[in-house]
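Please fill in the sequence for the structure shown.

STRUCTURE ENCODING:
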């Protein structure tokens, strides 16, 4: 039985490879423990408890990565913003857009 490809393990395998099974649970998998092919227990990850814990959980599972540097005001100022054409009437464009949606 290979813990990297299955989500079940019999009791003797679980005893011999407990650390590997826990590593899989930490990465978000649920492992069902079998006794003579009957499910008897389940190893599941513990749900994050607070708002920021879910982000740390996603980082731990490899879904997100830690930022290389903090996002400061200067980083936001470097984002190019769309600029209206010279002489464009932004209010008229907004009103026309709203009228098109009605």
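FILLED IN BY: designer on duty
SEQUENCE:
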């Amino acid at each position: 039985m290979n813990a990297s490809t299955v989500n079940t393990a019999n009791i003797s395998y679980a005893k011999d490879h407990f650390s590997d099974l826990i590593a899989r649970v930490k990465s978000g998998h649920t492992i069902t423990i079998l006794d003579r092919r009957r499910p008897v227990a389940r190893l599941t990850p513990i749900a994050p408890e607070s708002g920021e814990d879910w982000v740390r959980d996603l980082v731990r599972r490899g879904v997100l990565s830690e930022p290389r540097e903090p996002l400061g005001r200067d980083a936001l100022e470097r984002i190019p913003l769309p600029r209206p054409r010279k002489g464009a009437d932004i209010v008229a464009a907004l009103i026309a857009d709203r009228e098109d949606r009605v």
